[in-house]
Design goal:
The structure is a single chain. The chain is built from 13 helices and 25 strands. The protein has 484 residues and is of the alpha+beta class. Strands 1, 2, 8, 9, 10, 11, 19 and 20 form an 8-stranded mixed sheet that branches. Strands 14-15-16-13-17 form a 5-stranded antiparallel sheet, covered by helices on one side.
């Protein structure tokens, strides 16, 4: 039996988006998920910034029925409140941090339905127990509901979380900093919600945060500046009550729990995102304190970056070295994100020296330019791959309004690269004729001072020009291979 094109291990948001991306690229995909059914539990309450923009460029935001959409007006950096309202009034909409208030369970449902519609095969209750690879394929041993079996694939992507078996089997290191705090959280019913301190409260022994989830349920998160205890033991409601008592110095009534878990501020990153025919994405590639919710957003961007490149590799039309740009582009992004999260963890820690540091940061963050820079960093809006001679190259493609009532974002729903020919004589169409089997060439009219814009499937600009077609052939060859 011929190997499957790609097997994705792990059916969370990263794995499911990657499955859809690969199917848009015409690749056969199987997703192996160890859980027999969705849990309907959500670590992340929403997606902001580049993650939300990525879903928008696939036409997926309209599937989030009842989810609040708009611009992020408030956030925090290390517990220091940030009011982003001035940004809404002073910068163009494409520079604002978009926000989708949809819990992770809803994100997974939308992505799961989309991937399956596109033809991805999702196998639930299938646990991978062994991964080996040769120069020709990757072999997985899988325990399924009907027994064990072998599955061969041309490529395997580990989206199987912080304790990734795929990463360990590939011999990829996972280095970083150890935990300095432990956090317990629960979705619980409070006996007296009005008596609970609102928002985040920092004390000499830790942090306490509570916010409503609806239907009388609150999420309570308690962080302590110590890391002892059995991290593998199930968290109980008494554990959460005890941690709350130690941090607040008082009792908080909790009558029942819907979900209990823990996390730490350990920050680790895979040394490499590719080892032969095995690749990593999402939490399998990076873990961190969930300050500001960077995990799901970063994982979504991993999937968007990898999907079209891996699909081209499988199809056989990828230029030399394209798949290796997944690591070279995404590893520095996650590394920078981990630095930011470590800094936030330090700002949350106790002590008079940290108090002084927080006061200085709070004052600096009232300056509009600094506020913008921090907001962009928190939401991924500052990401730029391989800059070029035009300021748009390497950055996110703005959702240009085009003639005939369409937008650039709409053109990207298919997951194919797009070349906007904005010249009056349509000369870019002739230059790019040899790539029309791989690139959608769209004659259009836009108000921006551009003659053309080449956009990768993941929404980033590969080429832009204001005076002609110089460099277009090179960009097409670099990203999409030689002309056919």
């Amino acid at each position: 039996m011929s190997p499957v094109d790609v097997v994705i291990v792990g059916g969370g948001p990263t794995g499911l988006l990657l499955a859809g991306e690969l199917r848009l690229g015409g690749v056969q995909v199987i997703v192996l998920e160890r859980l027999a059914a969705p849990t309907d539990l959500s670590k992340a309450p929403g997606i902001a910034g580049r993650g939300a923009q990525t879903l928008n460029y696939r036409g997926l935001l309209d599937r989030f029925d009842g989810a609040a959409r708009g611009w992020a007006r408030f956030t925090h950096f290390g517990g220091i409140p940030l009011d982003l309202t001035p940004l809404l009034e002073s910068v163009p909409p494409e520079h604002l941090p978009p926000l989708l208030m949809a819990p992770q369970a809803q994100v997974e449902r939308v992505l799961r339905e989309w991937a399956v519609e596109l033809g991805a095969q999702l196998r639930r209750g299938h646990q991978v127990t062994e991964v080996t690879q040769s120069t020709e394929q990757v072999t997985l041993q899988v325990d399924g509901p009907d027994g064990g079996y072998r599955l061969d694939a041309r490529y395997v992507v580990g989206c199987d979380g912080a304790r990734s078996l795929v990463r360990r089997a590939a011999g990829i290191g996972f280095t970083g900093t150890e935990a300095t705090q432990i956090s317990r959280f629960g979705d619980v019913t409070l006996t007296d919600p009005d008596a609970v301190p609102p928002g985040m409260r920092r004390t000499p022994t830790g942090l306490f945060t509570a916010f409503p989830l609806g239907n009388g349920v609150h999420r309570v998160v308690v962080s302590e500046w110590r890391t002892g205890g059995d991290r593998d033991a199930p968290v109980t409601l008494d554990d959460l009550r005890g941690a709350t008592r130690r941090v607040l110095g008082t009792e908080v009534g909790m009558s029942e729990s819907r979900w209990l878990s823990r996390f730490t501020d350990a920050a680790r990153q895979a040394d490499r995102y590719r080892a032969g025919r095995v690749l990593l994405a999402g939490d399998a590639a990076h873990i961190q304190l969930p300050a500001g919710g960077p995990g799901m957003t970063t994982g979504i961007q991993d999937a968007a970056n990898l999907g079209w490149k891996l699909a081209a590799q499988v199809r056989g039309d990828a230029p030399a070295g394209l798949l290796d740009t997944y690591h070279s582009e995404r590893h520095p992004v996650a590394e920078r994100m981990l630095t930011s999260v470590r800094a936030q963890g330090l700002l949350l820690s106790p002590g008079p020296h940290v108090d002084a540091l927080r006061d200085v940061f709070a004052e600096l963050l009232t300056e509009p330019t600094t506020l913008r820079a921090v907001a962009d960093r928190l939401t991924g809006l500052d990401i730029r791959y391989q800059p070029g001679p035009h300021p748009l190259i390497g950055g996110w493609a703005p959702d240009l309004k085009l003639d005939r009532g369409t937008t650039l974002g709409t053109l990207l729903h298919t997951g194919r690269p797009v070349l906007l020919d904005l010249t009056t004589d349509r000369r870019l169409r002739d230059i790019a004729a040899g790539w029309q089997d791989r690139v959608d060439i769209v004659p259009a009219v836009a108000t921006e001072p551009l003659t053309g814009l080449l956009v990768r499937p993941d929404g980033y600009v590969a080429w832009a020009h204001e005076n002609g077609g110089d460099g277009l052939t090179h960009a097409l060859t670099t990203w999409f291979g030689p002309a056919g």
